[in-house]
Design brief:
single chain, alpha+beta, Outer membrane efflux proteins (OEP), 2 domains, 11 helices, 6 strands, about 10% strand, coiled coil
């Protein structure tokens, strides 16, 4: 009874000490977020971003994105990682429960006749061997004095939600890549149309030059340079077709399928995203951006790991009660209560010679936590920077498109005027070639600027936290 009393006192003391958690709870570090972005756009009163299905209006693009989110292999791998962490989290929640093991064994030992056990066994059983039959139920429980189970759950929970945010960030990246690839295809289609249009224009000019050459009005130099101008436009055709095929292959792979053609509709429409977008304030990125949230969960995980490393330096208290049945004869193995055995044990362990190693492990954990805090700050700064970059590109893209389109009108008129002046003998062939070449280059520049605007719109939507939802 006395030993039971002492063990009871030990257990009670352990339960009281369970509240002595050595690890600190997580508190967000001060980020000193700015009140506004460097560039500002017109915003609505609504601070909730549109769904990507509403943001992207092309039904063929929406179908491609949906396919990629389901079949992309990077996404599938990330989903499997989520399932692993979910199991780890469920396991961590069970860490407070005691372990219970059952074992049953039967053995026969032939003892030395000259040994004390052998001689006594022979006298008692009249046999030259000894049987042993046992069955035991053992429980083991480490009293959670320092809150290790709580910190393990915090660590597993933070890791789980960090991976969940990583999955959201990955899906967001996939959405962006699919959208940009799709619009790049439309841009390449536009470049192909421009090249074919310029080939037709150059061919008309060349036919006119040949007629004048045959009549002796111009030299072969004019014909050759006009042919070279036509070849410049013709060279764009196989280049555009090659880039289209490569882009289609990349987009199909992104969607988890083998390379093939991509169905697409419409032209490169920069007005597709011409609605007011809520930019909000930089601090809102903490709740919107999955990569920022993932970085914060990494700090939470590191904080829990630091507490666990500190707890290993303190004593551990474990209880190991067991009950079973034991007999040297099979017939009396299950003879109750004569065969019943009981054991109650309490163990208090304090690391001594490993103290230096445990202290070093704790200091390493502290440094890892400090690194995680710095990385969290950097992820937030990067997020604010990405929003500002996209806003800057979007802000001036319209101005550039307007100027390029005005320039295109002037160059188109210049090309037409040069042809008329040439026919009337008031301009030379070099002026026609220069006008056509400038018009061709400017048309290609307009497509490039439109793509830049579309990419800026897509990146701004992502940077502000728009994504999977």
């Amino acid at each position: 009874m006395r030993i039971l009393y002492k063990i009871g006192i030990t257990v009670f003391s352990g339960m009281i000490l369970t509240s002595c958690v050595v690890g600190k709870k997580y508190s967000r570090t001060e980020l000193n977020a700015p009140d506004k972005y460097r560039e500002e756009l017109t915003v609505t009163g609504d601070t909730i971003l549109h769904s990507w299905k509403t943001y992207y209006k092309d039904p063929l693009l929406v179908n491609l994105i949906e396919k990629a989110l389901v079949k992309n292999n990077e996404v599938l791998i990330a989903v499997k990682s989520m399932e692993q962490l979910d199991l780890n989290y469920k396991q961590a929640k069970l860490s407070l429960l005691p372990t219970l093991d059952f074992d049953a064994a039967a053995s026969r030992s032939y003892l030395s006749k000259n040994s004390l056990n052998g001689s006594l066994s022979a006298q008692f059983t009249s046999k030259d061997y000894m049987d042993d039959y046992s069955a035991n139920l053992r429980m083991s429980w480490e009293v959670d004095i320092w809150g290790k189970a709580t910190m393990q759950k915090r660590d597993a929970k933070a890791a789980y939600f960090a991976q969940k945010e990583n999955l959201s960030a990955l899906k967001t990246r996939i959405i962006v890549q699919v959208a940009q690839s799709y619009y790049n295809l439309l841009g390449l289609d536009e470049q192909l149309k421009i090249a074919e249009k310029n080939i037709e224009l150059s061919d008309n000019t060349l036919q006119m030059m040949k007629l004048q050459y045959n009549s002796g009005s111009i030299s072969s130099l004019a014909v050759n340079q006009t042919e070279a101008q036509k070849k410049t436009a013709e060279l764009l055709v196989p280049l555009a077709k090659t880039n289209i095929a490569v882009q289609e292959n990349a987009l199909q792979i992104l969607c988890g399928e083998y390379p093939n053609t991509i169905e697409r509709s419409g032209n490169l429409n920069v007005d597709e995203f011409a609605f007011e977008m809520p930019s909000g304030v930089p601090a809102s990125l903490l709740s919107r951006r999955p990569d920022v949230k993932s970085s914060e969960y990494a700090v939470m995980s590191a904080t829990a790991k630091t507490g666990l490393a500190k707890a290993t330096m303190y004593p551990t208290l474990s209880l190991s009660p067991s009950i079973g049945i034991n007999s040297f004869e099979f017939d009396t193995w299950f003879n109750f209560p004569g065969s019943v055995t009981k054991n109650i044990a309490a163990n208090l362990a304090q690391p001594i010679f490993r103290k230096k190693a445990l202290r070093t492990a704790y200091e390493v954990a502290v440094l890892e936590q400090e690194k995680a805090v710095v990385q969290f700050k950097q992820s937030f700064i990067t997020a604010v920077g990405e929003v500002s970059d996209a806003m800057s590109r979007l802000k001036y893209a319209d101005e550039r498109i307007k100027l390029a389109e005005e320039k295109a009108i002037s160059l188109e008129k210049a090309t037409s005027d040069a042809s008329l002046l040439y026919k009337s003998g008031m301009a030379n062939y070099l002026e026609i070639i220069a006008a056509q070449n400038s018009a061709l280059q400017n048309d290609l520049d307009v497509v490039t600027i439109k793509l830049e605007k579309l990419n800026a719109s897509i990146n701004l939507y992502r940077a502000l936290g728009g994504g999977v939802e």
